[in-house]
Amino acid sequence: MSETQVPIAIGIDVGGSGIKGAAVDVTTGRLAGTRLRVPTPQPSTPEACIAVITRMVKRIVKELPAAAGAPAGVGIPSVVVRGHTKSAANIDAGWIDFDADRAFEKALKRDVWLVNDADAAGEAEMRFGVGVGRKGTVILLTLGTGVGSAIYVDGRLVPNTELGHMEIGGRDAERRSSSAARTRRGLSWKAWAEDLDEHLLAINKLFSPDLFILGGGVSKRTDSFVPRLTVPVEIVPAALRNEAGIVGAALIAAERAGWRVADMPGVADMPGEAEVPGEGEAQGEGEAQGEGDMPGEAEAQGEGEAQGEAEAQAEGEAQGEAEAQGWDPLP
C-alpha cells in the first residue's frame, strides 16, 4: 500500500452460528465501518460460507470504498496450516483438508489469509487489548459455541492449540465449559463456573500461565462467574469482546500482506478523514446489538454469548420481526 493510503483491512470472524465482518483500521484496532452479522449457513460447508462471506465483503466495500483493494483475514474454528483448514470444530466436516486460502482468494478477488479464530482474537487482545505489554505465558480463551484458545509466550503466539478439545472426563472439555453449554443445559452461573473452573485447572496444570484472558460475549458478565473460580491464576475479561476476532483477522492479513502496521498513521491521522465509525461499539452492553448488526444472526442463542433465554428473547424483540424470521438482508 502507498504511504497515503488509509490502513484498512477486512476482518471476518466465522462462528458456529454467526459470521461477523467489518473493515478495520489496523493501526488502532478500531472498526472503520459498520460491523455486519449474518447466520452461519446450515450446513456450514465451505461453498456455503464462502458465498455468504463474498456478499458480506461486497457490502463492506460498498459502504467503505477505501476497503476495495484491502487484504482480508478470515478467522475460522479450525486448525489452519499454510492456508489449509485441517479440522472442523462446530462447522461442517467439508472444511477438513480444504485449500481455503485459494478458494477465498478466487471468490473475493483479493489477497486472503485464513487463521484459527481464537488465534485471531488473541492477536487483537495482545496488540490492542488487555494483553498489551504482558510477558510470560498468556492464554486467551474464547467462550462461545465451543472454547477456542490462543497461547502466547513472551508475546509470541503458539498457533492452533485448540484447548477446547482437551479431554476431561472422557469428553471434549468445551462440551461443559463453553458458554453455549451453559445456555443449552440451563445452568446457573454458579453451576457453570464449576465446569469452567475444572477446565481452567486442567489447563493450569499443563501450562502454568501467568494470565487468563476470557473472551466471547460472556466476557461482559465476568462478575457473575469469575469470583467463583478457584484456579490460582490472574483472570481478566477481554477488552475487545466480540470484535476481537474481526480485528485480529484483519491485522494478520495486513501484516502477511507486508504492511508495517506499527509504522502507519491511523485513519484518524489521515488528512481529511472523518472520525472512525463504530468507535466505542465494543464498550458496554450495546455491543451485542450494535446498529450495524445484521438481522437473523441468532448469535445470542447459538454462540452462547447471550445471557440466558430471557435476554436472547429480548434481543430478538429489539431486532424486530424480520430477525425473528431469519431474514438475511445482504444483497
Q: What would your notes on this structure say?
A:
The protein has 10 helices and 16 strands. By secondary structure, the chain is of the alpha/beta class. Strands 1, 2, 3, 4, 5 and 9 form a 6-stranded mixed sheet that branches. A 5-stranded mixed sheet has the order 12-11-10-15-16, covered by helices on one side. Strand 11 and strand 12 (156-158) form a beta hairpin. The protein has helices at 46-63, 100-108, 117-128, 174-177, 179-185, 189-207, 244-256, 299-302, 309-319, 321-324; strands at 8-14, 18-25, 30-31, 36-39, 72-76, 80-81, 84-85, 98-99, 112-116, 137-143, 147-153, 156-158, 167-168, 171-172, 211-215, 234-237. The radius of gyration is 18 Å and the shape is globular. The protein folds into 2 domains: 8-120 and 242-324, ATPase, nucleotide binding domain (Nucleotidyltransferase, domain 5, 2-Layer Sandwich); 133-240, ATPase, nucleotide binding domain (Nucleotidyltransferase, domain 5, 2-Layer Sandwich).
Question: Biggest β-sheet, characterized?
Answer: 6 strands, mixed
Q: What's the level 1 CATH class of the largest domain?
A: Alpha Beta
Give the helix proportion (percent range): 25-40%
Number of domains: 2
Report strand %.
15-25%
**How many β strands by DSSP?**
16
Distance between the terminal alpha carbons, to the nearest Å?
Answer: 29 Å
What oligomeric state is this? single chain
Structural class label: alpha/beta
CATH homologous superfamily classification of the largest domain: ATPase, nucleotide binding domain
Q: What is the general shape? A: globular
Radius of gyration: 18 Å
Average of per-residue pLDDT values: 83
Order of helices and strands: EEEEHEEEEHEHEEEEEHHHEEHHHH
* Uncertain stretches: 264-291, 295-329
CATH topology of the largest domain: Nucleotidyltransferase, domain 5
Helix tally equals: 10
